[in-house]
């Protein structure tokens, strides 16, 4: 039982770290997908209307 009491805090902290990193990586993946989709839509608009300049 001593071993459980000694190892449990480390295991809990490790699990919290794992969940936090998983959340960060999932958010990054979603952001990259959204950016790729926005870039694809911008490229499609540019190809559809090549004579119009960008409205930046």
Task: Present the secondary structure layout.
Elements: H1 2-48
Distance between the termini: 66 Å
Helices, by number, come to 1
- State the shape: rod-shaped
Helix and strand composition category? mainly alpha
Question: Runs with pLDDT <50, length 5+?
Answer: none
- Share of residues in helices: over 70%
Average pLDDT reading:
91
Radius of gyration (CA) equals: 23 Å
Helix-strand topology string: H
Beta-strand content: under 5%
The main β sheet shows up as: none
Tally of extended strands?
0
Structure, described:
There is one protein chain. The chain has 56 residues and is mainly α. Helix content is 84%, strand content 0%. It has one helix and no strands. The protein has one helix at 2-48. The longest helix has 47 residues, at 2-48.
Keywords:
1 helix, 56 residues, mainly alpha, 84% helix, single chain
Quickly describe the structure:
The chain contains one helix and no strands.
């Amino acid at each position: 039982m001593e071993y459980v009491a000694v190892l449990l805090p480390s295991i809990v902290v490790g699990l919290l770290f794992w969940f936090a990193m998983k959340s960060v990586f999932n958010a990054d993946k979603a952001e990259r997908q959204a950016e790729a989709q926005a870039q694809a839509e911008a490229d499609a608009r540019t190809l559809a209307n090549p004579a119009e300049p960008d409205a930046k």
